[in-house]
Amino acid sequence: MKKLLQLAGATLVLAATADLAQAATLDTVKERGYLQCGVSTGVPGFSNPDDKGNWTGIDVDVCRAMAAAALGDAAKVKYVPLTAKERFTALQSGEIDVLSRNTTWTQTRDTSLGLNFVGVNYYDGQGFMVNKNLGVKSALELDGATVCIQAGTTTELNLADYFRENDMTFQPVVFDTSAQSIQSFETGRCDVLTSDQSQLYALRTKLAKPSDAVVLPEVISKEPLGPVVRQGDDQWLNIAKWSLYALINAEELGLNSSNIDSKAKSKDPAISRFLGKTGTGGKGLALPDDFAYQVIKQVGSYDEVFERNIGSKSPLLIERGINALWTDGGIVYAPPFR
Ligand SMILES: N[C@@H](CCC(=O)N[C@@H](CS)C(=O)NCC(=O)O)C(=O)O
């Protein structure tokens, strides 16, 4: 009897999980009237709340782009702050519709969590930050260091691999949130803070004296960061993909939030297809034909998103580097709207 009950229970759980996976997320989001977007608990430039609770960042803009595409309104997003450890469960359980939280696309995550990575909105790599007065110039001088790190990240394994490969030892000090790790770094609880390099630049802005900290030159891993959705809903995966690709294609086509209206009359066939005036528009996504127009009008092109959040118009001052378009010597490339 007990066995039978257990079996019934297990079947129910399986059925519920399958149901959630099959459910058309677009319909759920439309009925609810807003998108639930999983973000970090606070990484400036990526996903960060101000003191009024308004979220900004390049990851936030991916969610705004999806809301503009799916609901016609970039403001219809509820942000759910998640630690690294909590993020995948929140997506699996249906608490959020998309996770857009400086999350690295890896084979294990893409194939064993019931989730799908959508694409890349920032190519990153892991680095190290130290206090200037340590006098350290290279990560290879860090033998025996105390290292602040966050639980549930790719950072943990990369760190262990790097120290082992270079015959060095370290003492990990593990935290759940970036606020805890940067505070511990500042108070000298650890010699080194390690994370994706962009996040080191972001967290450095939170120090009382940012210029006291230096990011070392070594980049020890590949960290392609991008949004994630649940497996089993291809329509929603496609909406996420083509919202992200809209941002990138707009930059390539020279479109941005200020010029998109004047370009609407353009005879350029690539632009009229992008704007949904010709071609398939939003039909294959069950979205209005002008979905990409809404994304760019309300959120901007990839270069606008980059510059205002992490680039030249932000305190982070990150250069485009490999995150430049493929036509400008970078690796940012999106399939075409045709
Ligand atoms: N990209 C890495 C690291 C992501 C990560 O969680 N980084 C920390 C270090 S800055 C973070 O974002 N913390 C923000 C938070 O605690 O909410 C991963 O996907 O595992």
From TrEMBL:
Signal sequence range: 1-23
Protein name: Amino acid ABC transporter substrate-binding protein
Keywords, comma-separated and alphabetical: Signal, Transport
Record PANTHER family: AMINO ACID ABC TRANSPORTER PERMEASE, AMINO-ACID ABC TRANSPORTER-BINDING PROTEIN YHDW-RELATED
Location of the Solute-binding protein family 3/N-terminal domain: 34-263
Origin species: Parendozoicomonas callyspongiae
Pfam families associated with the record: SBP_bac_3
Keyword set includes NAD: no
Family: Belongs to the bacterial solute-binding protein 3 family.
SMART domains, A to Z: PBPb (SM00062)
